Amino acid sequence: MKKTNLILNTIVKSVLIFSIIVSAFSCSSDDDNNNSDDDDLPASGVTLPADRLTTYTGVLAYEPSSGEDIVNLTGTAKITGSSSNYTISFSDNVPSISGITFSLINGQYVYVNPKDSDEGITIDEDNELTVGMTIDNNETAFSSKDDF
């Protein structure tokens, strides 16, 4: 149980820290100027390329607010959808995430949920998927990276 919590907490924290770093570095030096030109803003609601709509294999961890924790070193996450509205479905009966709208920031597809949750999803330049979220005290984490 402690190993499950350690893996889950490490993945969730890594995703959230990564999302904050991406957001910080995506700001240009022009942001301090009173420039009303919105051309430097990241593209929001972008359509994912076909090679991103696939099934990813990696470490999946789920810690529900009550019940048994799930850790699967060969779990899966499948991205489906179109026209900037996507769903990620997980193996092992882990709840899906739907209504995802990605932004394109520095060559990476990023989703940070603005609602009452800690949630971040990234698909990097190497087509590696990282997910971390806490909603209603249920924690889900996934990483297709070999060296998370």
Verbal overview:
The protein has 148 residues and is an alpha+beta fold. The chain has one domain (2-28, 42-143). 16% of the residues lie in helices and 41% in strands. It has one helix at 2-25, and strands at residues 43-44, 55-63, 70-82, 85-90, 97-100, 103-105, 108-112, 118-123, 129-135, 138-143. It has a ten-stranded antiparallel beta sheet with strand order 1-6-7-8-9-10-2-3-4-5, covered by helices on one side. The model is unreliable at 19-41 (pLDDT under 50).
Sequence-ordered SSE layout with sheet pairings:
Layout: H1 2-25, E1 43-44, E2 55-63, E3 70-82, E4 85-90, E5 97-100, E6 103-105, E7 108-112, E8 118-123, E9 129-135, E10 138-143
Antiparallel strand pairs: 1-6, 2-3, 2-10, 3-4, 4-5, 6-7, 7-8, 8-9, 9-10
Nutshell version of this structure?
The chain is of the alpha+beta class and 148 residues long. Helix content is 16%, strand content 41%. It has one domain.
Overall number of strands: 10
Low-pLDDT regions: 19-41
- Overall tally of domains: 1
Q: Can you tell me the overall shape?
A: globular
Q: Specify the biggest β-sheet.
A: 10 strands, antiparallel
Q: Give the topology string: H per helix, E per strand.
A: HEEEEEEEEEE
Helix content: 10-25%
Nearest-integer average pLDDT:
78
* Count of alpha and pi helical runs: 1
Task: Summarize this structure as a short list of keywords or feature phrases.
1 helix, alpha+beta, 148 residues, single chain, ten-stranded antiparallel sheet
